[in-house]
């Protein structure tokens, strides 16, 4: 199972299961993880990219340790909604990962996530050097938090529709 929509993920998730957020870059992979209640996304240490096999190994080790049941990966579409080379690279990464794991991936529009992450780090008065170290995982947290908020909204909609059944 390679990819799911956020709605399909919502149907499969059980209480107490964590999910991870990824911001895939050419040199690093920003990483974040949800709490077990899936309310908060927390940045985790950035993965320095080496080669795919090693990157996958590190990512899957993290997933096993944190009991991750799904990955939400930022899809870097252009501002006009078109797909560029980074979208193709992200899709290729997910295809390759799907050969190594059954953990599903959900694509999430990441437009402006890095801008939002940088703004948040600036507001926290994080130095330029520290910002460059933390920006990718902060962006992964913004990506994951967006998905967590959507999952929460879907759960509320489901609860409301159950009331009318």
Keywords:
single chain, 165 residues, alpha/beta, Nucleotidyltransferase, domain 5, 5 helices, 6 strands
Give an overview of the whole structure:
The chain is an alpha/beta fold and 165 residues long. The chain has one domain: Nucleotidyltransferase, domain 5 (2-Layer Sandwich). The protein has 5 helices and 6 strands. Helix 3 links the parallel strand 5 and strand 6. The longest helix has 36 residues. The two termini are 32 Å apart. The relative contact order is 0.22. The model has no long low-confidence stretch (mean pLDDT 86).
Oligomer: single chain
Count every beta strand, where a strand is a DSSP E run of 2 or more residues.
Answer: 6
**Helix share of residues?**
40-55%
N/C terminus separation: 32 Å
CATH 4th-level superfamily? YqgF/RNase H-like domain
Side-by-side strand order of the widest sheet: 1-6-5-2-3-4
Can you count the helices?
5
What order do the helices and strands follow?
EHEEEHEHEHH
CATH topology descriptor: Nucleotidyltransferase, domain 5
- Write the CATH architecture name: 2-Layer Sandwich
CATH class annotation: Alpha Beta
Q: Tell me the number of structural domains.
A: 1
Mean pLDDT: 86
Characterize the overall form: globular
Sequence-ordered SSE layout with sheet pairings:
Blueprint: E1 3-4, H1 6-12, E2 18-24, E3 28-34, E4 41-48, H2 52-66, E5 68-75, H3 85-98, E6 105-109, H4 113-123, H5 128-163
Helix pairs in contact: 1-5, 4-5
